[in-house]
Structure formats: structure tokens, C-alpha cells
Amino acid sequence: MGDVLLARWQFGITSVYHFLFVPLTLGLSVLVAIMETLYVRTGNELYKRMAKFWGKLFLLNFSLGVVTGLVQEFQFGMNWSEYSRFMGDIFGVPLALEALTAFYLESVFIGLWLFGWDRLSRKTHLACIWLVAFASNLSALWILIANSFMQAPVGYVLRNGRAEMTDFFALLTNSYVLRQYPHTLMGGLITAGVFVMAISAYHLLRKNQFEFFRTSLRLGLTCALIASVLAAGTGHMQAQHVAKAQPMKLAVMESLWETANPAPYLLFASIDQDKQQNSLEISVPGALSLLVYGSLDGEIKGIKELQTQYAQQYGPGNYIPDIFPVFWSYRIMIGAGMWLLALTAFAFFQLRQNRLEQTPWLLRAIFWSLPVPYLANSAGWIVTEMGRQPWIVFGLQRVEQAVSPNVSSGAVWISLIGFTVLYGLLAVVGVHLLKKFARQGPEPANSDNVATTAKEATLWN
Questions:
Q1: Which of 264, 241, 262 is nearest to 254 (CA)?
Q2: Helix (H, G, I), strand (E, B) or coil at 262
Q3: Distance (Å, rounded) from C-alpha 29 to C-alpha 31?
Q4: Rounded mean pLDDT of 279-292?
Q5: What is the chain's alpha carbon radius of gyration, rounded to the nearest angstrom?
Q6: Which of 156, 158, 307, 326 is the most exposed place for a label (fewest CB within 10 A)?
Q7: Which of 59, 60, 102, 80 is nearest to 14 (CA)?
Q8: Three-point CA angle 419, 147, 373, nearest 5°
């Protein structure tokens, strides 16, 4: 392997490991806050037990996300020093703000929430978990603001061989992040909703603490269904924007070699990138133009024409990403999303008919669907990042221009193997602990404390 490919593998592997934990953190922080809000509003101890149980799983997942994320920023200095030199003036700002305004806030109030159950008033304790949820999702916003500049640069000037910021507000209102961020949030809420549903279904099948897990299942189902519907809408808007901002990415997502009007939507294709053709296609005529333009009359530029255009605009070179992983990752993401939407819609129908908890095959389907949102999230990011190749900053810096010039292949190999093994062990430990605590379930309700007395309520408030 060359130095560039090794560095890409290292960053890709560590990023995928890290992002296994991020969506659940984003969504579950909100769900736990909702559970505690229901407790404060109703005084029902069931919601307090829910907040504590699901909060324990949230804290474990959050800690694994922090540990796996620490290495990410260091890699910019280790393997991507030319990227850091070129982009540091811009990329460093949202990363610094992420640490100052989100990570510190998140860390402080997680501690207060964890140790403050018997020390803070109800409303103060509730404010802590809502601040954790706010900070977690604010952290994601800053990261995506940085990423959106790499996808669609705005508010900058090139000076002395570097990109320098000229308009911070343009960075914040980048049209790419305005579509990317809501879709990411919906992915987090879907992940959290399915996570709560799957564990609840597991216990309902074993008839463990029926009322607790029935209530949890219904809350998770409501969250996952609403988020799945919104994810379809935000994803559609993001794809429409990609057609304008990165037409090559859209063409690669559809393996569209020739410019077409109207353009078909491919359900299946046997791709031969060397010959620049698809030997077998199953498509829906005109559907891609309809999705992008809302009309059958809409031209979508093909890969060949865009390659010629980019070569004229940016100079000689190959501007076609690796099509196979982008094409199929996109379909995996869409397929996973459609499955979760169908599953949650049918489960909600069964819920309305009061048959959800009495349908074992549906509970099993919910349980075995736990990996699906993780698969969808990872596939979506593969499309986002690999579809931008060969650019690390679209139109400004290619990947091979960003790698560190004085880092040997041997050093990258050592760190690549080390990170992969370490992260693999962390993932195994993390999944084992999540599985262990999820199987244990919450502590049994204390019958002496089920009802909150008027005196206790007065003291809490």
C-alpha cells in the first residue's frame, strides 16, 4: 500500500469505530431527558426508573464514544499535516468551539446528573440531562460545520497557499450543513429509538418487568417512527443539494456513466469501472430526475461528462471516485431506512390495535433489527466521504496533497494495526458491557417508594 492509502485506511477504520457510538449518544440523551421530564411532570416512579436504566446505558455508550474519538483529531497532525497546514485556519475553529462550548458542558453536566439524583432538586436535576442532550447535539453540529466546508467550501480566501476564513457566518450557514445536520440528528434518534425498542422487546419476550419495558417500547417506537419519516424527508433534501454541490457524487451514487434527461434510478447494476459501463441494470425510468427536480424533465450529468469537465477545470487527473462501495453503500442505507420505516409503521399499527406486546414474531423482528440503524449510519458516511474522492476539500485540495510528507509507511502500518486492534478490543468490551447491563434490566421497583408523597414533592420542588 502507498502512504496515502494507508493513511486513508487508518482514518477510515478509526472513524467507523467512533461513529458506532455517536448516533446512540445523540438520540439516547434526548430520550433519557424525555423520560425524566415525564417523571418530574407526573411523579410516576416508573419514569424515574426508566431514566436511570436507559441513562446507565447512555453513559456507557458515551464513554466509549469519547475514548474512540480522542484519536481522531491527533491524526490530523500525524498523518494529515499538509491538510492541517492548508485548512487549519478554518477547520480548527469549529473543532475548538466544539470542545469549549459542547464537550466541556456535556462532561460537567453528565457528572452532575450522574451523582445528583439524591442531592439536587428534581427540576435542577432535569435541567442537567437536558443540558447534556443539548451539548451532545451541539457537539455534532460543530463537527458537521467543519465537515460541510470540506464538502462545499464557503467564506474563505486562498492566501499564501492556505485557505483562510473571511466569513464565519457563511461557515455557520453553509447550505450543505443546513441539510446534513437534520439528517444526522434523525439518524441518531432512529438509532436510539430502535435501541430502546430492541432491548424492550427482548425482555417482553421473556416476560420481564412487563410494565417497565412496555412503556419503554412504546416511547422508543414513537421516537423511531417519527424520526424515520423525518429522515426520509431530510435525506431527500440532502440528495437534491448534492446534485447541485457535488454532481459527481450523485452520478457515482447512481453509477450513471452517460448524461441523461430524464435520468433513471438504478435498483441494481453490475459495474465495470475499468470499461466505464454497467453490464447489467435494473432501473426505474426517469425516477432520478423526478427525485432531484420533482419533474421527469431534468438533466443529470453523467460520470464521463463530469470527468471531462473537472479535468478542464482543475487540471489533468482522475476525478472519478471508487464507484462500487459508494453505489452499494447508498442502497444499503436506503434499504435499511425503508425497512425501519416499514417496521415501525407496522408496529405502531399493532400498538394502536393493542396487539404489539402480544405478537412474538414482531417483537423478534424488532430485536433482530437492532444492527440495522448502525449499518445505515455507517453506509451513509461511506457515501458522504468516499463519494467526495479524490478531494479532501472539494475543489481545493486533493487527498494525496493532504497527507504528511515525512511519515514512513512503517510508522503508519504500526499505528494502523495498533489502532485497529485497540479499537476492536474496545468495541468488544463495549458491546459486552452494553449487553450485560441490558440483559440485567432495571432494578426492581421498591413498593415503598412507588408513590411520591406531597411532602416529598414539596421538598423536591
A1: 264
A2: coil
A3: 6
A4: 87
A5: 24
A6: 158
A7: 80
A8: 65
Which residue from 447, 444, 450, 435 is spatially nearest to 209, judged by alpha carbons? 444
| pLDDT value at residue 1 | 53
How far apart are the C-alpha atoms of 12 and 18, rounded to whole Å? 10
Return the residue matching grid coordinates 469537465: 309
Q: pLDDT above 70 covers what percent of the chain?
A: 96
The conformation of residue 266, written as its DSSP 8-state character, comes to E
272 pLDDT exceeds 60?
yes
Residue 264 is classified by DSSP as P
**Which DSSP letter does residue 406 get?**
T
Give the confidence band of 8 by pLDDT, cuts at 50, 70, 90: confident
Tell me the C-alpha distance between 312 and 35, whole Å: 57
Q: What is the mean pLDDT of residues 396-408?
A: 83
* Residues 184, 279 contacting (CB under 8 angstroms): no
Q: Which residue, among 336, 318, 423, 410, has the nearest Cα to 380 in the 3D structure?
A: 336
Query: 297 to each of 237, 408, 411, 437, how far by Cα in Å?
Result: 19, 52, 53, 55
The pairing of strands 397-398 and 265-272 is unpaired
CA distance 176 to 170: 11
* Per-residue pLDDT, 456: 33
3-state secondary structure labels for all residues of 285-314: CCHHHHHHHCCCCCCECCHHHHHHHHHHHH
Helix (H, G, I), strand (E, B) or coil at 80: coil
Q: Check pLDDT > 70 for residue 2.
A: yes
Task: Give per-residue burial for 133-153: e unless 16+ CB within 10 Å, then b.
Answer: bbbbbbbbbbbbbbbbbbbbb
CA atoms of 301 and 303, how far apart (whole Å): 7
Which residue ranges make up each domain of the chain?
A: 3-245+324-460, 247-320
The SS3 assignment for 189 reads helix
Residue 284's beta-bridge partner residues? 265
What is the model's pTM? 0.88
